[in-house]
Amino acid sequence: MKKILIADDHPDIRRLLSITLGGEYQIFEASDGVSALQALREHRPDALVLDIMMPGALDGLQVLDRVKADPDLKSTLVAMVTARGQAADYRAGQEHGADAYFIKPFSPLQVVNWLREKLK
């Protein structure tokens, strides 16, 4: 079974995605950047759904930078989710190596369909 890590500081977003994805994938959750990196190293998920704005020492873009710089993690698919939908934010996600970018509020089915396509 493919594994997905959902890293978002909003428990409702994590719950919504976990419920939507849980039937098809093994789900892990993190509420901040530091715990996301720990979970990535521990569980080696196939994909990461990552909020850009998270509290603590690392925001989503910093986590993404570390994922892409780590030889063991750099092949992980990364979908950024954010409330910030400005063009500059989208470009920043692309420049940091995000594979997809979803703007909140988003339909969980958008994420599910993207993951299904990418994790075939």
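The above is record 1. Record 2 follows with the same two-line structure.
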Amino acid sequence: MAFEALLTDDLVRIAAAGGGFRLQAGVRATEDLVRIAAAGSRHNARLIFVGLGARTTDDIVRISAAGKGGVFFE
């Protein structure tokens, strides 16, 4: 499944249900990634965000904190 084509609200729903996935996240807003990460943290979903090398450290920290250990970066 191409998760990149899904709306942020759909990804939040999947993560909130405990579903884990790998997402090419470079084009998503940081706030959207924070929402997805926070939703996944409630059910220990494993989320892999790819393509965030150009983000600031502060952005990565915000996403990481929201994910509470369930977000991995590639």
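The radius of gyration is 11 Å.
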